[in-house]
Amino acid sequence: MASSTLTSKSFLGSSRIDGASISSDLRKLSISSVQISFRSRIPKKLQINAAGSTFGTNFRVTTFGESHGGGVGCIIDGCPPRIPLSEADMQFDLDRRRPGQSRITTPRKETDTCKISSGVSEGLTTGTPIHVFVPNTDQRGLDYSEMSVAYRPSHADATYDMKYGVRSVQGGGRSSARETIGRVAAGGVAKKILKLYAGTEILAYVSQVHKVVLPEGVVDHDSLTLDQMESNIVRCPDPEYAEKMIAAIDAVRVKGDSVGGVVTCIVRNAPRGLGSPVFDKLEAELAKAAMSLPATKGFEFGSGFAGTLLTGSEHNDEFYTDKHGRIRTRTNRSGGIQGGISNGEIINMRIAFKPTSTIGKKQHTVTRDKKETDLIARGRHDPCVVPRAVPMVEAMVALVLMDQLMAQYSQCYLLPINSELQEPLIMPRLEAANASV
To answer: Mind telling me which PROSITE patterns this protein's record contains (predicted)?
Structure first.
């Protein structure tokens, strides 16, 4: 709280104001000092998170670093203690995200090897902040000399200058997809905990590249496996359409151009009851998380926009009781969420990614001093970001579900539950989990 002391003499010292006499009571007031207190009306939370680099409430992740700086990483705060954790738990997804995987990704060579420097002791999380760092080793800052004065069309160069009045030129700084390393590392932690203590699986795959669209129903979400998605360089579980997608990327890659696409993500065995009514609906949280990723331009949940073509009787998911006595839905056009709360069915969503902004073809733009010019961007960039976006989408979905699981446990499972309506969160004994360390 800031305070200020103003003596009344500075504005009440004269015996007349605009020719009028000051009353004797006002003259008495001038003898004393007037104490005025100012209290900030800006919520403390908004003051802390104004920079926009922190995600989550209970399971909080802050990412840091820039594309061509010393390195990137994250700080995970709120992670439960006594969870078996090592760099290998994060490295698997970091390897899926890293550049230089194939001819259809950026040729930048980075091992993206992560290092945990706090929050883990003798293979177990301590409950304190976990610091994860990944160094940048293959930097070519000179590739961005033209972009230091000319804005890349559809990139964040211009808007960063508009907001901050300064920006990191090399590689786009924080707007680079390299920032997502911190998200993917933290997502690896969240995915492990969700799998270990709730049996939850998060799987994403490429369902569209440019005009090549994987038909609805080709992929069985009940039996989909990670091996199916990882069987080809485009991460499409159907071999026939995978080849078509790779060919579409190759066709623009050799021309110095780019294409976009769609990533579909499903969640199996999500606990019931995640999410909250009104503003914090689970699909709203998932939409924010997915749309915070670089190059995202669209989000669909459940039936999505296609559901607008149906009537209510066609779209509604009718309930039934299965052989185990659990309430289920016969169809899943709701996408596993109703009223903003998970219902136990498979959660499914689709995220659209635009064509990569930085391309090798000449484009018209303007310089920082507002002069029109032509730009041929150099550097190493993905002709299609979608294959590498798969682990990024999985990570953001995992962070949301982990955050919501902790919120659900603290609000609705702290006291005895209504066993007739609520399902208990059955969690394995920590001793059994720790035995694998």
So the answer is: CHORISMATE_SYNTHASE_1, CHORISMATE_SYNTHASE_3
How many other CB atoms are found less than 10 A from the CB of residue 340?
17
* Planar angle of CA 10, 15, 16, nearest 5 degrees: 100
pLDDT in tens, 402-437: 999 999 988 888 888 888 888 876 654 444 444 443
Encoding tokens for residue 436? 């694998």
The CB-side HSE value for 240 (13 A sphere, CA atoms) comes to 5
Strands (E) across 378-431 are located at: none
Task: Tell me 46's DSSP state.
Answer: H
Single-letter code of the amino acid located at 103: R
| Within a domain: 308 | yes
Inside any domain, residue 44:
no
- What is the pLDDT at residue 42? 54
Task: Describe the crossing of helices 87-97 and 386-412 by its angle, rounded to 10 degrees.
Answer: 140
Instruction: Give the orientation angle of helix 180-198 with respect to helix 386-412, to 10 degrees.
Output: 50
DSSP 8-state secondary structure symbol assigned to residue 119: S
**Residue matched to tokens 């293959």:** 138
Are 314 and 378 a contacting pair, CB within 8 Å? no
Token pair, residue 62, equals: 């802050």
Whether residue 30 lies inside any domain: the answer is no
Read off the tokens for 272: 């019931």
